[in-house]
Specification:
Blueprint lengths: L6 E5 L9 H9 L5 E4 L6 H18 L2 E5 L2 H7 L3 E4 L6 H7 L5 E6 L2 H9 L4 E4 L16 H10 L4 E4 L7 H5 L5 E4 L1 H4 L4 H14 L21
Helix pairs in contact: 1-2, 1-9, 2-3
């Protein structure tokens, strides 16, 4: 029986990508990324749809899951395997009704009450952050590792840590029993995105701590448009 491992999620952000976004993500796909979350908050729906469709073949070839941030319509239209909701997105109980049972539904949370609310609403997993200071939310105080641990212990779904996580801070994050980490700049801002993802993968594999609730493998979703 395979021991569940902590996962590596890559969140897209064109503004923080050092080079070509598609090339950077594709390089990371072959280097240990488990899920890609397409998060392009200022982009119109058509641009997000095209990006998801452009990434979908490489994700399928590598067995990597593909999530769309906020846009349930784009996720369904492009055949993504799940949706990740922000605090200002549709409530999870509403989004859940629009998805099939095979779609994964996640929520970003920033406190224990938000995490409990998301799970009650039907979230399959939550991301908690920002754990450390991050360029994605400049000036926002970090929540810290102990707050992450509190959420991991309290909810009965996988918890992904996000926000300013580096190779140096990874051991203390994994020690909480979280299901893995989500990163942006640590990979996309690197001159070698594939190498950066590989370094995270190796560190995740070397950790003696296993997730309290392992993150699911990518489901098969046979719906939507296929590029």
């Amino acid at each position: 029986m395979t021991t569940p491992r902590a996962q590596l999620h890559l969140i897209t952000d064109r503004k923080r990508c050092r080079g070509d976004l598609l090339a950077a993500v594709r390089a990371a796909l072959g280097s240990g990324v488990d899920w890609v979350q397409v998060r392009e908050k200022s982009a119109p729906a058509l641009d997000v749809f095209r990006l998801v469709c452009a990434l979908a073949p490489a994700c399928r070839d590598r067995g990597v899951g593909l999530l769309v941030n906020d846009r349930v319509d784009v996720a369904l239209a492009a055949g993504a395997q799940g949706v990740h909701l922000a605090r200002k997105s549709l409530p999870p109980q509403v989004a859940r009704r629009l998805l099939t049972a095979r779609h994964l539904l996640g929520c970003s949370v920033h406190s224990l009450p938000e995490a409990l609310e998301a799970v009650r609403g039907g979230a399959d997993y939550v991301t908690f952050g920002n754990v450390f200071p991050t360029a994605s939310h400049p000036g926002l105080p970090p929540r810290g590792v102990e707050s992450l641990r509190e959420v991991v212990v309290a909810v009965e779904v996988p918890v992904i840590a996000v926000g300013g996580i580096t190779l140096e801070t990874l051991p203390q994050v994994l020690a909480t029993g979280c299901a893995g980490v989500a990163v942006i700049g640590a990979i996309l801002e690197s001159p070698d995105p594939g190498g950066a993802a590989r370094a995270f993968r190796e560190a995740l594999e070397a950790s003696p701590v296993r997730p309290r609730h392992p993150f699911p493998l990518p489901p098969t979703v046979d719906a939507g448009v296929r590029p």
